[in-house]
Records
---
Amino acid sequence: MSSSRATLMQVAERAGVSLASTSRALHGTGASQAMVDRVRAAAAELGYSPDAIGRSLRMKRTFQIAFAVADIGNPVYVEMLTAIHEVLAPHGYRVVVMSTGPTVGTTVDLVRSLGSGFVDGLIVSPLRTDDALVEAIRQAPVPVVVIGRSLEKQGIDSVSTDSAAGLGQAVAHLVEIGRRRIGFVNGPLDTTPGAARQRGFDAATSAPAFAGEHAETERADDFTVTAGLAAARRLLSRTPAAGPFDAVVAANDLLAIGVIRAAGELGLTVPGALAVTGMDDTEIGKVFQPSLTSVSLGSADRGRAAAQLVLDRVGDVVEPAQQIAIGPHLVVRESTTTPRADAVAGPPASKEKSAR
Amino acid sequence: MSSSRATLMQVAERAGVSLASTSRALHGTGASQAMVDRVRAAAAELGYSPDAIGRSLRMKRTFQIAFAVADIGNPVYVEMLTAIHEVLAPHGYRVVVMSTGPTVGTTVDLVRSLGSGFVDGLIVSPLRTDDALVEAIRQAPVPVVVIGRSLEKQGIDSVSTDSAAGLGQAVAHLVEIGRRRIGFVNGPLDTTPGAARQRGFDAATSAPAFAGEHAETERADDFTVTAGLAAARRLLSRTPAAGPFDAVVAANDLLAIGVIRAAGELGLTVPGALAVTGMDDTEIGKVFQPSLTSVSLGSADRGRAAAQLVLDRVGDVVEPAQQIAIGPHLVVRESTTTPRADAVAGPPASKEKSAR
DNA sequence: GTGAAAGCGCTAACAC
DNA sequence: GTGTTAGCGCTTTCAC
């Protein structure tokens, strides 16, 4: 921490030219070479660096974008954040991380707080959505891009994925490898992902292709390992008339890990006695033992797309609301296939295989 | 995105009072109740919300703190970020996430960029440090807190931990459970953590208590699972004259997971044939199978401490540079103890046990 | 190509 | 307790 910073005014005085010329010289907009040299020299001598706040006030742009999620600890959001940062930083934008809290109410508050104009745009991935939130986003004074549910009809930019279809891919894969009695460990139904995935599971297991087999859902309190462990214990303690479960579909990778731990407690081998699939295709799932078959929802892609979208909006591209969809795809790994001892590789993007 | 936002001036006109009174009324500083009511009503009618930029320019405070790390995907940094956010948000501070890049040079650039005054302070955890960086931090126009190496002598606020001692705890634990031939999988030596951990391992294994046993280091290219897997393959393919390795100390949890995967490839059971310890006590280590014995370096605590420190500094607390140390402690889990089938619990903070 | 001046939205002296 | 006014640092008309 040293002496107070130099202002443009001081640079101007030092160079012996006007404030306006100094500004122009530093931006290279319509100034003679002599002027540019002179001003640059003065700026260097003073260690001048332009003040972001003064500039923001004048230009009405902060060069900041907010990214808001319920829980920044969740690996999916971390992947999104990384991707968003990678897209925005080269354009000179900073990323402000915010927390929505678990409820819609606090998310609405957050969107309203955009009124203080500290960012040029917002990327938000709400766990739950209602009319008040939709309305708040519509009224927001800066562009908002939603990652999650498609909100195109509501006139809101959104980046979505078809997690219901993704769940279908997981079920189809399990049926294909001969599993017949499939349990589903889902998270809370009142969340956007929870609801979509339940729809996907119900649709997949009531399709003709699934006839004659057994399907059953158990709901975890949260999308975490701990909640998944508890839910799986409940699920696996029941034995359907059709026979014991031979597969479990989990609504995300963390729940899937909980399921595998529960299987271990009960002496069930994975995938031998119980095949398990996750969703989100996280790093942790790739390195877990057994590595996790998982439905990729393209977290990084969704982050990138959202960042690009908000960048377009901030750049005054006035178009109707856009909806970008990232297709889910299944990545098959050890938790649904017999592992070969020598095939235990590191985090491989190579073993991918698209299903359906 | 709707109509342009209302300004304080407009609220003043609407209320039929002066600009200053409006400001005062809204802040509750020396205004009559009647004035407050009147102004509040006008503000509400206009949906006024104060402009953060105008206020920042005037107050010379942005209410933003930057958090900069090389790789925001690393679970340790995510934990720090969460803790930092939790401390700062209640004080009205936003968190700006920045990337230092892997080299010292880009970190120096980042510190210099503080000159544009977009944040009131910085928390940075550099992987590598040199004189130029120390000097840049000293010259920085806003308070900077370093998480990592102690920089008290250089007059810089820092939050550190004794990872060398932590490594000693891991080695002591392995010796205690009867392991005699211990390998060490470290990350790059030219990083601050890499160097410290190597020092710790060398010290622990050259202490009298370790006499007559075998110690050997293998260096991974990076602190990742993939690099750990490759390094462990190299290490375990060698058989010391004293006999095969019966334990591996890894410099962090990600490396440790790579080690366990390598052990699996070679048919070595963990912890039966090979006991493995990690460091950082991450979430992923807790849920891994086998769950990871790990040296906690108090990531969340360090984040909290750094946030508190930067908060004190921006609050004009002028004191000599502070150095806060968070003590490491060993958390024993399955990877160094025989697991009981029914003891495979969820992420437990309960099974902790301090060593030494 | 250069300079003078206005003004972005806000807070804090300073008078009354 | 209230109003008037200056000014934070910058960009951008507008005249010349």
Note: The two ends of chain A are 59 Å apart (CA to CA).
---
Amino acid sequence: MTKLDRIDPWRVALRLPGGGEARVYADDTLLAAMRRDRCLDQLARVAALPGLVGPAMAMPDAHQGYGFPIGGVAAFDPEDGGVVSPGGVGFDINCGVRLLATDVEAGPLGARGDGGPLADLAEAVLRRVPVGHGKRRTGVGRADLAGVLRDGAAWAVGRGLGEEADLARVESGGRLAGADLDAVSARARERGAGQVGTLGGGNHFIEVQRVERVLDEEAARRLGLAVDQVVVLLHTGSRGFGHQVCTDHVRELGRAAGRLGLRLPDRQLAAAPLGSPEARAYLGAMAAAANFAWANRQVITHRVREALAEVLGARARVVWDVAHNLAKMETHRVDGRVRRLCVHRKGATRAFGPGHPELPPELRDLGQPVLIPGSMGTASYVALGTETAMAETWGSVCHGAGRVRSRTAARKELSPDGVLRRLARAGVVVRGGSRRGLVEEAPEAYKDVDRVVAVVAGAGLARLVARLVPLAVVKG
DNA sequence: ATGTAC
């Protein structure tokens, strides 16, 4: 049996059957939402995996996922039997968010809503970026998938789809080393070829926003953000490619469990000891999928820039690009000792604190920018990682609002017309997107992002910089 | 999230 003990207004200890504890970052309202699905049971099972270092953690946006909760953070030590688990990364490997800052203000653009320049911009983006599920082909990367998988965002920049300066503003430079093309199935390659530069469906989006409020003047200035500025937030991942990589390796690790000496309480928690051939193969394929996703966000960035130039005569810089579905080998300090750990962040964002050597020199003293999108039609946040996050969460925070309704429940309880009406009343232009996607991604299907962000800020895991509000959204 | 079911 597990028991929840509140530590402070933002932290809860989940007491585990074996005597240890997992940690939940939540206020009472968010904790109540987590207790309505299997999220906390899943967290307890993650805590029982071999070689875990520190507590398994759930961020305030956490909800039930495949194996691990979405909003889960867990680190494992290769020298202590630690594992890597595809379920701790998720199906959409390196799903992530990129923020572009334009050089125009929203005010002078005049009327909001349908018929104005923002609708024109959304339509110009939609003409250039294929959206939705299925085999949407762009041709980009089809002849050079190997380059995409090895070099990520740098592949796209090398093809003229972006600027060299973009790469400094992407986590890990937009490229994870160690991509192993031999660990990628022919089927994954087939699904991925031609999907570079496509948005996908579900919660993926390209949103034109304005900086509504600056919460830290100095940090905002350093990031090139100011009140009323038009910005673009895009959210997508590795499409069918990453999905197939996850499927392939979950199956393989499930088969290999006995040989690897793992007793898995849940097939969805398939894992392999770090250093085993199976773990190396998964990490090699995962790196390839991570690079696919970064190439994808880079190509879409280029298309959005074209649309911005055409409709608004605007230019845009990359503020930052976060990955929120990855497992990475990182150096962390544990009880005063430096250790290499495999940090799983599934629906959780890396949030390195000030001074971290992996941050670009011009931002190093600030800490790593963190992007926290809300649900469709609600606010998003720009924040910075902190020393507290480094000390408590392996430098991690939440990744968004997080679901409160399953897709099925949302379809049952909400109507597409009602969702569209509410967005129109709020003056938000919506283009693309299926009627089904509209209800599944409705604000009512998600937690309150302001409440989620208040927890990570209150706990000191992040320092808030700016609040962004939507003007026009292109949905998958 | 996902050639929305191998």
Note: Residues 66, 90-92, 95, 133-135, 191, 200-204, 237-240, 242-244, 246-247, 325, 407, 436 of chain A lie near DNA strand B (CB under 10 Å from a C1').
